[in-house]
Every structure is written in C-alpha cells, then in structure tokens.
C-alpha cells in the first residue's frame, strides 16, 4: 500500500455490472487511470448458478450479454483516452470472490466500483457485493455513486486510533499530498470518558499532516 509520502496507482481494477449504478464508477475509474497513467482492468461477473442455467437459460444469457456489453463499452471509452485496458469476464454465484481474486492476481492498487448493483434494494445504501468486496479486499476500495466524482478536493479521515485507522490515515495523507486535498480529521466519542482519547486521535493526525505540509481541520 502506498505510504503517506508516496501515493501511486499503477493498476486499477474497475468492477461493473453494466447497470446505472456502475456508471459513476466507470467514468471515474477511467478518469483516475488518465490522471495516474495507470493500467485499467475491467471485470464484470455474471451472477448465475447451475440451477438458473438449467431452469432459465434465457435469463442466464441475458445476464451474460449485459456483462459482455458493459465490458465492451468501458473498453472502448478507455481506449479512446489512450488507456491500456484489459477486460475480465467471470460467471458464478459470488461475484465478490472473483473481484477480490482478480485484484490480487493483477496487483491492483485500488478497486473502483459502484455503490449498488442490480441486486441492491432501493432502501439499501450499499449493495451486498460492494460490502463484501470492501470486507475482503486486500487493497483500498473507492465506492462511487452514480453522480459521484473522485476529485480528491476534500478528504474526511475517520479514526479511532486503531492500527486499521492508522493505515487509512497514511493512505489519505498520500492522496492529499498528491492532489493538494483539504483534510478533515474526525474521531467520535460515545461517552465523556472517550472524548479525551478522541481529541488525541485527531491531534495526532493534524501533527502528522502538518509535517507533510498539509493543513487539516479536526473534529472530536
């Protein structure tokens, strides 16, 4: 993972299901690849199983066609921008496994995907596939809503002082240094006793950011 002193992206894995919920991720992954001169791997997984293929082959065909069309569309858009792109197609019951495996196989520095896929319910903030990828991914995951933009103009660093927060903090500082981002550090205290620790957490981030020449607003 890049350190706070050296944020670099060489390989991007874009996961798309061809739905409207992936449109923002597709657009921003291509933009990020252009900004960082990275290679782009585009994966689409047709979520099917043996039962579905046997009972409703026409449904399976529709799912596979949608995935193939999504790959073709993104590949054409990326190539127009001069990006080196490779398409990856899989089919199976658990899309997140293929996404995580390809991220490892392709040495991806980041995964870009939408907030909800075709299986998501409108009341859900995040699709189950996206949540599973976040939980199992070995690299950072950028979740992009349909209208979202990866401008990196303003970053929110959430910390509880744990080792996981430390890694996220270092990554965020790296992005901020690369893109001159404005930073806001926040730590939440649920009791009065935790308030002092929360204040220490955000103060630590502020001090580290200032050493890197970055300004940060703190909230605790």
Order of helices and strands: EHEHHEHEHEEHEHE
CATH topology of the largest domain: Rossmann fold
Helix fraction?
40-55%
Q: Cα-atom Rg, whole angstroms?
A: 19 Å
| Count of individual beta strands | 8
**Side-by-side strand order of the widest sheet:** 3-2-1-4-5
What is the structural class? alpha/beta
Domain count: the total is 2
CATH architecture of the largest domain: 3-Layer(aba) Sandwich
**Fourth CATH level, the homologous superfamily of the largest domain:** HUPs
Can you give the mean pLDDT? Answer: 87
Largest sheet: 5 strands, parallel
What CATH first level of the largest domain would be assigned?
Alpha Beta
Strand-residue fraction? 15-25%
Distance between the termini: 27 Å
**Can you count the helices?**
7
Any overview of this molecule?
- The protein folds into two domains: 134 residues, Rossmann fold; 66 residues, Rossmann fold (3-Layer(aba) Sandwich).
- Helix content is 46%, strand content 20%.
- It is built from seven helices and eight strands; from the N terminus they run E-H-E-H-H-E-H-E-H-E-E-H-E-H-E.
- It has a five-stranded parallel beta sheet, with helices on both faces. The chain has a three-stranded parallel beta sheet with strand order 6-7-8, with helices on one face.
- The longest helix is centred in the N-terminal third of the chain and has 24 residues.
- 34% of the residues are buried.
